[in-house]
Amino acid sequence: MFVKNKIQLKIVCILLILLCIFYSISYATDSIYVWSSESEALNNTTSTTSTNIFSNNENTNSNIIDNYNNTITTSANITDLGLQCGGAVLIEMNSGNVLYDHNMHEQLRPASVTKVMTILLIMEAIDSGRLSYTDKIPCSENASNMGGSQIWLDVREELTVDEMLKAICVVSANDCTMAMAEYLAGSEEAFVKQMNEKANELGMNDTTFKNCHGIDEDGHVTSAYDISLMSRELLTKHPDITKYTTIWMDSLRDGKSELVNTNKLIRNYKGATGLKTGSTSVALFNLSASATRNDLSLIAVVMKAPSSQVRFSEAQKLLDYGFSNYEYKKLANKGDTVKEIAVNKGVESKVNTVLETDSGILITKGQDKNIEQVIDIPEIVSSPIVQNQILGSITYTLNGEEIGKVNIVAEKSVDKISTFSMIEYVYGKWFSLFRI
Fold this sequence. Notes:
By secondary structure, the protein is α+β, with helices and mostly antiparallel strands. It has 13 helices and 18 strands. The two termini are 16 Å apart. Residues 22-75 have low confidence and may be disordered.
């Protein structure tokens, strides 16, 4: 008798559930979801300071930063730093905004700062899978006879790509640079062609490369601004390079060849991440210096300084100016939760909404208190919903002017309710409940 009653009870329950399903399908409306007393309706836009809602993130959204270019650039040279070099520039690494300009488009000889482009092409080959850190690189007669800065490669010797990069980045080895160029392109001429093609792609309009190493050659010229462009490309697209550019002292050949970084800022400047020195009797003293503090990454380029000491002091002066006057303000993280919203006629009654991208902006110090955000998202959406479907947006403003916008998207998909899907769902629930 007990078994019979239990079966009858299950049948009655299933019939009642089916009636409820058909009722909800037939009469569902946009008003079926009610916000709790603690929830804030979002059909009315809300404005708060950005730091009240979202946590920080080290990634950036270059589109948002680029919207602020004019404000930053026009204030670039309010202060005269009294630089003693032929050309210089200070840029913010993530956005490329120019923060200080001193003859930044003057065409000058780059010396070994040329190797920034060589290193960039090497890193592109590694990241694309065409080259491995463990690949053995032979040394040609041409490479072994380079002269200048070198580690005295022997034609009978092979070094790994990892060792070659260490020698190029730390002591500016011309022989290793030539060996890598010949290995990657077959000849220096072919490699230099690739260098110029990449320069053109990056908009380095002041640049013509004649060799891969930077030894003085007529027509081999670039500018401080162009050096900042290729330095930025290297650091943002291939951040692993800093494993080499931040080495102060190391060795090769089982400790027989000692290496000491030619960039003294690596040892003496807080937050230094690189990047490359260069000097010849004609080019004088050049430097591309990079550093990061409190999420603000800067690149300072100095060309044709009268001495090595001056190039480092000028670069430090530029970096200090940037860190003293600017900050990078994080606005939001990709994947940060905004809030749940109701779903009409969906197999689930709610969906979580999140930010589609990271976002941040370069500002002058003290302006962060003037940043506001306006959230624009409906109170209820209709199913079906696809994961990452745009459901709304957050607009950021600074002193009332829009500086960027980030989409708000669905965290997951929500299918539209159907008779079959609801029967399947309910049956599964009740089967679990009555299972003996």
